[in-house]
Each structure stands twice: as C-alpha cells, then as structure tokens.
Amino acid sequence: MKDKDKQQLKEQVNEQEQEKDISKQIEKQKEIDKKKDVDKYNQKEKEKEQKKDKEKELEKEKTIEQKKDKEKELVREQKQKQEKEQRKEQGTEKQEKEQKKEKDIDKGKEKEQQKEQQKEQKKELKQKQEKEQRKEQKKELVKEQKKEFEKEKEQEKEQDKHQVEEKEKDKKKEKKKDDINHHKKNKHCNTLSQDAIHQMLATRHMKTRSTVFQSTNLQESFFELTSGAYTDRGEDSFRQFTNPGALTDRNEDSFYLNRNSDTPTFQAFTLRKSYSCEDIQPFNCIDQYLVRLYQLEIQLDQFKEAGFQTVASFELLNELKDMLAQSKKSKRTEDLKMLQLRVCSILNTLLIENPQSVNAVIKTGIIDEVLSIINLILLSQVQISHLLPLHKFFEICSSQQKLLFIDKGIIPTMRRLLDSLDELCVKIAVGIIKRIIHACQELSSLGVQIDIKKIIESDGTLDKLVTVLLNDEYQDQEVNQNASLAIGLTFKAAPLPKEFRNEVILTI
Predict the structure, then answer these.
(1) Same structural domain for residues 200 and 230?
(2) Are 353 and 461 contained in the same domain?
(3) Among 259, 231, 261, 333, which Cα is nearest to 290's?
(4) Where is this region: Disordered (predicted)?
(5) In the predicted model, is pLDDT for residue 339 greater than 70?
(6) 25-37 tens-digit pLDDT
(7) Rounded Cα–Cα distance for residues 274 and 269 (Å)
(8) How many angstroms separate the first and last alpha carbons of the chain?
(9) pLDDT at residue number 80
(10) What's the pLDDT score for residue 418?
(11) Residue 246 belongs to what domain range?
(12) Same domain, 177 and 282
C-alpha cells in the first residue's frame, strides 16, 4: 500500500511538479507574452514615435516645401513685380520713345511746313518779281510797239507824201496835156469866160452812193455772190463803175471816179483766174478790192435781211484768198489794213451758223492765208477781226479737221498771241489752243496718237498757258478758266506738277 501511496504521492508530487512546471512554464510564457506585449507595445510606441518623427519630418519637409513654395511665390511675385516694373518702365520708355518720335515727326512737319512756307514765300516773291518783270517787259513792249508804230506811221506818211507828190506831178502833166489840147482846139480863143466856167461847174455833180449801188434783184445777186457767175443785169449794175473811168482815191466812206483811168473796173470785181492784178498798179488794185468788198458786204446784209442763207462757194473763197495773198505783196498802208480786216469780217459772216462751208474753207486754204497775215503783222496791230474767222472755224469744224492745222503752225501762232495786251485776243487764242488739245485727247481714245503734251511743252506754249493762268489782271475770268482747262486736258492721264496744281484745281 505504501508503495502505492508512495507512488501516488510521487505521482502527486510529479503532478504537482508538473503543475508547477506547467505553472512556471505558464508564468514564463506569461512573462514571455508580457515581454512580447511590452515589446510589441514598445515597438508600437517606437513605431508611433517613428511615425511621429516621420510626420514631424514630413511636416518639416512640408514646412520647408511650403517655405520654399512661399519663397518661390515671393520670388515669382518679385519677378512679376520686377517684370511689371520693367514693363512699366519699358512702356514708359516706349511712350517716351513714341512721344519723342511724335515730337520729332512734329518737328519734321513743322520744318517741312516752314520749308513749304519759305518755298511759298519764295514762289510768291518770284511771282511778284515775274509780274514786275512782265509789267516791265510789257511796258518795254508797249514802248517798242509805240516806236514801231510811230516808225510805220512815219513811213506811211513818207509814202503818202511820195504818192501825193506823184499825183501832183501826174496832175500837172495832165493839166499840161489838157492845156495843150485846149489850146489846139481853141486857137482863136485864149481863155474861157467866167460864165462858161460857172455853167460847167453847175452841170457837174458828185455821184452819190445810191446812184452807184442801184438796187438789184436779191435772188440774182445771191446767185452772183455764191457761184461767181454774173447775169447781164448784174453786169450792167457793175458797169456803172467802168466808164468814164476806174475808181481810185478813197476816203473812209466814199468813192469817186478818175476819168483818166482806162482800167475796166468790172474785171477787177470778178477776179477770174485768167485775170490777175499783177498788171494793175497796187494803189488802184487795193481800191478796187475795197470796192468789191464793200459791194459784198452790202449784198450779205441784204441776204440777211431777206432771210437767205449764205453759201461760201469755192469761187468766192478763192477770191477772198487772192485778196489776202495780194495784200502781202504791197506795203502796209491804212487801205491795206482795212482790206485785210474786211476780208476777215466777210469770212467770219460766211462761217456763222454754216458748218457746210468747212470743207470748202479747208480746200481753198484761206485759213492758211489768215494765219500768215497774223504772223506777218505786229502783235500790237492784231485785232479781234483778224481772229474771229479762226474762232468761228475751230468752233464748227470736227476734231479731225482741227488736227490738220497742227502741222500748219496754228499752235505757234496762238502762242505768240498769248503775249498780246488785248485781253480778247488772248481769250480767243487760249480758246483755240484748248479746242485743239481737246481734239487730240478725244481722238487718242480712237487710236490716233498725237503727243500734244510733248508738243506744247517743247515749244513753250505750256509755260505761256501757266503765265496766263497765274495772271490776276484779266477782267474776264474765263481767260484763266480756259487756260486751266487747257492745262488740265494736257495732263489728263498724268499728275499735275506741284508748281501750278492748286491754281488749276481752284480755277476749274
């Protein structure tokens, strides 16, 4: 039993020990667990601390980054501020530069304006000087023209004296012949009684104009004037002048007969091509021409009053042309001046409202004779009557017909007339030049190439037109307007020169 007990005891003891061991192990494990827990706790705390440290570091980093960001922002802001300030400075600089540029431009403009003003002042001074020079030149021209006119008058007076002396000589010779004839007829009677002389004077009477120019049929006279043919009735009326002598000496409004002349006056009136005035003395020829022109003027006035339309025939135009051509061969007397003026007046009346006569006028060449006479006589002696047929002709003829007279010297003739002291002569000359330039520009669109600008620039006509344009002394402003239109037509497709651009625009 004891053994059992012992064993039991042992077993109990063993169990106890085992329990103790177990308890120890448990305690150990608990301790170990505690340690583990403590370690875990410590680890956790460490981890927490580490986390905290990390967080702190992160916060530090964040704060550093934030600081950096703030610094960057500050830098950026500073940069932006600097950039803004730079921009402002640049803007101010640009503005200053622009202002400087504007100031420089304004200064340049002011300088240009001052230069232009100085140029204008110089131009005005030049124009004034030119005007003064023109006035002086005009005065000199007037003086020269007066001197030439006085010289011509003196020459004419000398010619008249010479003619008077020759007439007196002829009269003395005729008286001697009459005395001889009278002495032969009246051998037994030395002198005539006073009663006989009074009877002769009483029977003599001057033929008045009404007896010289008897009224004729208007239709027959119209046929005679236009066709050059003469009826028997018209011939009888003309033969009133033929016998007992031809017409010679002439006052301004009267004609009388010279019984000692054997020249048939009717032949001088008709002026056929077969008969020329070269065989007649110049003095008698001019007087006969004047009688013929006077008769033509009367007939033209009668045709107007009766309502007939005058027709310029080739015969009549050739007759007038021959008169002008013959007048150039003689010395320039008062009768010759009157003859040229009357021919131009009759030609003007034939051209009035008569465009059908243009072709005949061109073919006969009477306009060429008028131009040659205008070129021959002094500028001071050119009258409006010389220019009226030209004015009327260039008014009614076509553009192509106008251009025919460029080669015949119409432009130089009109350029010469621009220096005339007669305002109406200048007006007609400028009008004719304007019509020719317009005709050239009109035909240039149709393919006719005439460089009228080059023509009038090279011969000085353009400069003369500019002087007419700038002349303020004309009473009729149409003279300046026509000059400006002529210049404007000349520079139709080209810019006007600065020298007279404003004047042309303002005048037009």
Answers:
(1) no
(2) no
(3) 333
(4) 1-189
(5) yes
(6) 777 777 777 777 7
(7) 13
(8) 168
(9) 81
(10) 93
(11) 212-358
(12) no
At residue 183, the pLDDT reads 52
Q: What is the pLDDT of residues 123-142, one digit of tens each?
A: 788 877 877 777 777 777 77
Domain-embedded: residue 9: no
Stretch (H or E) spanning 250: strand 246-250
Residue 181 has a pLDDT of 67
> 19-35 burial, b for 16+ CB within 10 Å, e for fewer?
eeeeeeeeeeeeeeeee
Res. 384: pLDDT tops 70 = yes
Residue 348 sits in the same domain as residue 220: yes
Going by C-beta distance under 8 Å and a sequence separation of 6 or more, which residues neighbour residue 429?
A: 387, 414, 415, 417, 418, 420
Q: How many CB atoms lie within 10 A of CB 152?
A: 15
Same domain, 200 and 219: no
* Measured distance CA(230)–CA(238) in Å, rounded: 10
Judge if 413 and 431 occupy the same domain. Answer: yes
Q: Which residues fall within 8 angstroms of residue 237, CB to CB, at 6 or more apart?
A: 213, 214, 216
How far, in Å, CA of 364 to CA of 495, rounded? Answer: 41
Domains contained in the chain, number: 3
Query: Is 450 in the same domain as 498?
Result: yes
d(CA 320, CA 365): 11
Helix, strand or coil, per DSSP, at residue 506: helix
Measured between alpha carbons, how far is 290 from 335 in angstroms, rounded to an integer?
Answer: 8
Mean pLDDT to the nearest integer, 208-224: 40
**Do residue 194 and residue 218 come from a single domain?**
no
| HEC string for 284-295 | HHHHHHHHHHHH
Residue 269, pLDDT above cutoff 80: no
| pLDDT value at 257 more than 50 | no
Task: Give whichever of 35-39, 89-93, 241-245 has the largest mean pLDDT.
Answer: 35-39
5 occurs within a structural domain: no
Burial 397-418 (b: 16+ CB within 10 A, else e): bebebbbebeeeebbebbbbbb
Average pLDDT estimate for 479-508: 72
Structure tokens at 475: 């009473």
Domain-located, residue 343: yes
